[in-house]
Amino acid sequence: MVIRAGAVNRGPAAAGDNRRAILAAARRVMAERGYRVPLSTIVREAGVSQGVLYRHFPTRLDLALAVFEDNFTELAAVAADPGPDAFPRLWARLVELTVESSAFVEMVLDARQELPGYRGNARLLELVEATLPRAQEAGSVAAGLTPADVLLAWRMVFGVVVTAADPGDIAPAVARVRALLPLP
């Protein structure tokens, strides 16, 4: 039997690398083609088999939740900054992530229906609640702005992203939404 160089089956030792490859591929492909992209596209991009994908992520939602968790980790790191500029940076990054990966916001919508205990919206609200008062005290954000207002503005940005007929229209429309609101 002839074994090709580089074609060694590493078995369980490859599990961590496979998982990372799947997550990286899912992030890229879902950002480009949306949440409902065929999983076979992600498998090809990751260089793994369909079985490996399902071993790590039994459902599309499981895969998207794992990818989206990276977004929450990043946002939580921004919110952990005790300074008054944490909220403006949190808001800016939230808008960027929404534009970059609207597929994952679609996942949140699915999670609400399929996972009654899903806390994505509550977690986002907690990050805003932790940072907004400091920005208001520093005078960089309007005093009357509420966390609910911020989440409404975020949903407006998401609406622009998912309803734009031409991807070139997204950035100017999001900039206009941001200009209409008393947010940094």
UniProtKB/TrEMBL annotation:
User: From which domain of life does this come?
Assistant: Bacteria
Output the InterPro entries linked to this UniProt entry. Homeodomain-like_sf (IPR009057), HTH-type_TetR-like_transc_reg (IPR050109), HTH_TetR (IPR001647), Tet_transcr_reg_TetR-rel_C_sf (IPR036271)
Which residues mediate DNA binding here?
38-57
Keywords from UniProt, A to Z, are: DNA-binding, Transcription, Transcription regulation
Q: Which Pfam families match?
A: TetR_N (PF00440)
What the entry lists under PROSITE patterns is as follows: HTH_TETR_2
Species name? Modestobacter marinus
Which parts of the sequence belong to the HTH tetR-type domain?
A: 16-75
Residue spans making up a coiled coil are: none
In Swiss-Prot or TrEMBL terms, this protein is called AcrR family transcriptional regulator
